[in-house]
Each structure stands twice: as structure tokens, then as C-alpha cells.
Amino acid sequence: MADDSKHIDPAPLGFRQWPAWLGIALAALLARLPWAVQRVLGRGLGAGLHRLMGSRRRIAERNIALCFPHLDAAQQAALVHASFAALGVGLFEFARAWWGSVAPMRRGLQVEGLEHLDAARAEGRGVIVISAHFTTLEIAGRLMCDYAPLAGMYRPHEQGAMEWTVKRGRLRYASAMFTRDELRPAMKHLKQGGLLWFAPDQDTRRGDSVYVPFFGLPAYSLTSTHQLARLSGARVVAFSHRRREDGGYTLRMSPAFEDFPSKDATADTARVMAAIEAMVREVPEQYLWIHRRFKHQPEGGESAYL
């Protein structure tokens, strides 16, 4: 692993950074509220975001209509509302993961499938842990790090204050953090037997991508899982997580993918997206539907968000 994987640069200063710092300070203060209060506030925040974030709400509505056409209009609308409520709670979970105590989340925590992760590590190779952009993403990573030394890959933020905050917050629990451009240290980490966690489920023009099915629709998807596994020899394990109705959390590691990677990057990427789709179908209300997952379409195809 790179020697500076836990290094954090000094906090960026400057007049233009102060609005961001004020928001960060407010989030750090809110992170210390009782968890029961945060959950109530989070659901209220989600309802407010549903009303105020018109463009993002319409993206969520379109995504859900595309992915769940068998639901009627009322059911689709209910799922959109539930997803924003989950988003509001998730924002408080982010704050707790970075600045607060996660002791309330540890009570009632269910962790399943650690034997699959142990079996993959016992082979003496690194392990790529794939997940997806659920509203529970941050708290799940914090909780899983009690059981496994996860390192993470992430997209760097253009604003210095946010970049510093994200890296500092995640290095409270992650063994290392690599930006998506830091492939060499990430590869070294895997080759030394480390665990690397990332979510390859969003549509981006950065990195090699192919069209593979996601809920039966062509989705522009990163081949990074295939590429990293091919170059490092690492095993691949899927990591799902959900917030239960009783207020607890369930984290689950699945058996390592068999015969992965193959020689076909597209086929391997389709397998990854199929695993992520299965996660989403378990708790659709907790997925981040406000991302334009189908914004790029095969040549000649119309955008899903006209």
C-alpha cells in the first residue's frame, strides 16, 4: 500500500471556501444530535428535498418509471417519496460516519457472509469489494470497517474544502483512500493482499465503459472491475447493505465471483451490473435514483431525460 495512503493535506483556506466551511461546520454539529432525532429530521429533510429539488425529483421519477414499469403511477410515486426520505436519513448517516458516533448503529447490526470475504483473502490475493450508490453507502462502509480493513476509491471533488473533508472523514475508518486516477497505488494495494471497495454503478465518461443491461435497459457502465481484477489477480466480492424497518442495519458479503475475470470485459461488466441490480431490487427505496443512470445511450438512441 502507498506510504501516503493515509496522508491528509492541510485544510484549504481562502475567502471562496468559507461558504463550504460553514456548511461543513453545520453538518459536524448536526452529527452530534441523538440518532432518534436525526432519523425524524432526516425524513423531514427528505420530504423537503422532494419538493425543492425539482430537476432531481424528475430524474428519480423517470428512472423508477423505466426500471419498474410494472408498478402503477401511485406505486411509482410512493417509491419516489420513499427514496427521498431514505436520502434525508442517509445525509445524517454521512455526518455520523465522518464526525459523530456510530454506536447506535452498531446495536442490532447484522453482518452476513464474512466467511466469503475470509475465503477470498485466504487465497493470498487482494479482494475487490463492489457495492452501489445506496443512501446507506457511507454508514455501511464505516460499520464494515469494524470487521474488515477496507480501502476505498472515490471521485475527487473540485472544491478544496469538500475534497479535504471527504478524505479526512473517510480516513477515520478506511485503511486508505485512492482517487479514481490513483491506479498505481490502488493496484499495489490489491497486489499486497488489500481490500479495495468501490461502487461502479454510475454513468460517467471517465474510464473505459460499455453498454450492458441494467433493469433490461442499456446502461453505460465502467469496466473498471474487470480491468482491476485482470491486472491485479484480485478476487471480486459483492457487498450489499440496507437500513431495516426496525432501525437496524444488515451488511452482507456474497461469495466471490467464479471464473472472474474472463477475457470479455463486456460480459464481466454485465455480471457486475446484474449483481448490483439484484441489490437494488432488494431495497429499491434506498438506491440513489437522482443520478441520471441512462443519460448516455447507444449510437442513435435518445436520451432518457428529454
Task: Give a quick set of tags describing it.
306 residues; alpha/beta; two-stranded antiparallel ribbon
Share of helix among residues?
Answer: 40-55%
The number of helical segments is: 11
Main-sheet strand order equals: 1-9-8-2-5-3-4
For the largest beta-sheet, the strand count, sense and barrel status come to:
7 strands, mixed
Low-confidence stretches: none
Number of strands: 9
Beta-strand percent range: 5-15%
Distance between the termini: 45 Å
Task: Walk me through the structure.
The protein starts with 17 loop residues before the first helix and ends in a 24-residue tail after the last helix. The protein has helices at residues 18-30, 35-52, 54-67, 73-99, 103-106, 114-122, 137-144, 160-170, 183-191, 224-232, 265-282, and strands at 110-112, 127-130, 150-154, 177-179, 195-198, 209-214, 217-222, 235-243, 249-253. 40% of the residues are buried. It has one domain (16-286). The mean pLDDT is 92. The longest helix has 27 residues, at 73-99. The chain has a 7-stranded mixed beta sheet with strand order 1-9-8-2-5-3-4, with helices on both faces. Strands 6-7 form a two-stranded antiparallel sheet. It is α/β, with parallel strands linked by helices.
